[in-house]
């Protein structure tokens, strides 16, 4: 599971830009099962998940829904039988935001939990840091985004 899944999504401020190509280049390797797609002029992250049964697909979508509610960051989910397609995109920035990568990592974690049969609550104890609060991941972000991360939206 990606280290990104250990971060909380951060509030998105007004006039916050989408991730730069350099930021995308640094973040994409952290979610290797996801593809960068261009749709209607906007960059999005997309992954396809296949399960043995429709029940497993339903469990995955339920876990993903829990993450969306906890993080207050939606993702697009399409499914057909035991196949699920997940697309991450932030309409407010008309592109990708660090939160989309966090949600992609959370989706990968939910998939792993369903595949290995782990059950139970996915809630994490305590409050998770945002990506701007991590020295390692702050280096990935542009200087302007790091500065915005120090301010409240």
Question: In short, what is this structure?
Answer:
With 153 residues, the chain is of the alpha+beta class. Helices cover 36% and strands 16% of the residues. A four-stranded antiparallel β-sheet has the order 1-2-4-3, with helices on one face.
Structure commentary:
The protein has 153 residues and is α+β, with helices and mostly antiparallel strands. It is 36% helix and 16% strand. It has helices spanning 21-27, 54-71, 98-116, 135-138, 143-149, and strands at residues 35-39, 42-50, 76-80, 83-88. Residues 120-125 have low confidence and may be disordered.
Based on the model shown, name its key terms.
153 residues, alpha+beta, 5 helices, 4 strands, globular
Task: Determine the N-to-C terminus distance.
Answer: 29 Å
The number of strands is 4
Order of the strands making up the biggest sheet? 1-2-4-3
Could you describe the largest sheet, including whether it forms a barrel? 4 strands, antiparallel
Total number of helices: 5
Cα Rg? 15 Å
Uncertain stretches: 120-125
Task: Give the amount of beta strand, in percent.
Answer: 15-25%
Average pLDDT score? 85
Could you state the order of secondary-structure elements as H and E?
HEEHEEHHH
Q: Residue share in helices?
A: 25-40%
Shape: globular
